[in-house]
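Ticket #4471: structure export looks truncated?
Reporter: QA, pipeline team
Priority: medium

Steps to reproduce: submit the single chain below to the structure queue and open the exported record.
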Amino acid sequence: MLLYHAMMLAPMFILAEMSVGWIVAIAAVLLGGIYVWGLHRRVRQFRRALESGSTAELPVDASSLGELATAINRRLRDHAEQTTRAQSQLDEVTRTLRATPIAVIALDAKQRVLGLNPAAARLLACDEMQARGRLLQELALEPALNAFIDEALAASGVAATQLEMKHSRGDRGEDRAHVLSASSEPLEMKYGPHGIVLSLVDVTRARQLEAMRSEFAANVSHELRTPITTIRGFVDTLTQLGRSDLDRSERFLAIVQRSVVRLSAIVEDILTLSLLEDPTRHAALETKRIPLLEIMQECAEDLAHTAELREVSIAMEDPDGSPPRRPCDGESIAGDSGRHKSPLERHSSCARRFDRDSARLGRFRFVGH
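Actual output as written to the record:
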């Protein structure tokens, strides 16, 4: 009997043990699935955060992903700091380029404009934003500039020269020719061949000043020759006259004195060149109302002696042929007497020097105001 009951209960114990095992297995599978699902969800969160480029830190917990999240957060902070520093440096470079008077243009290998600063936009008379992506030839039909860019691209981006742009814009928007000092450096491109960074420095004013200095230096000897010749001629005459003719001696001495003053004025002209170069010092130039007839009379007297030696006459008359009238308020100009007399003396001196002897040296004629 007992054996019978034992045989009947044995399968039940076996089934009970098997049920517990299945329950444990199923629970383990469920718990594992929940853990894996949670892990997968966290991984997807990390991936979305990294792919979005968000600078927000990832959530950190005590799970096995906590250390990974901590490391990723540290790298994100480092990356954010580096990005901030790079952006700050880029802003500084951008502000510098926008403030510089040097025209800077970035071009790709096909001469398309990648970017330019305001100075370049003014030079090319174009809009900064609209110029980007366009060929430079569309913005500036300048053969010299286009040839220089071709040369720079062929030379791996490094080139330098001086050129003239005939249709560029001035600071006030007017069309005028510019003399430019052009240079280029290679521009590395992430994809494709390298471009160039083109810088254009306007040296027009410097060229004008150089020409002014050269002209001034060439004229100095001529300016000095007239008063020196006058002084030498009248000193020789005074030596011959002695004290026999005091009236003529006094008149000649007055002319010599004026020539000495003229020499001093020429020295002052050399200093005046620096005033002309500096607009802030233009007020230092001395101007006043000067009678025209007075300038003409002094010029005629200064040239009279050397003219007489060649039997050349100097005549002054009004348009109607009558003797010149006395100076009046209406017959004057504003300026410096020495500087106004200089071109008149130079013109008369050249005519006297290169004309034939025994000639009549034109007329000084006052034609009104």
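Status: closed, not a bug. The export was complete when the record was re-opened. Leaving a note from the reviewer for reference: The longest helix spans residues 2-52.
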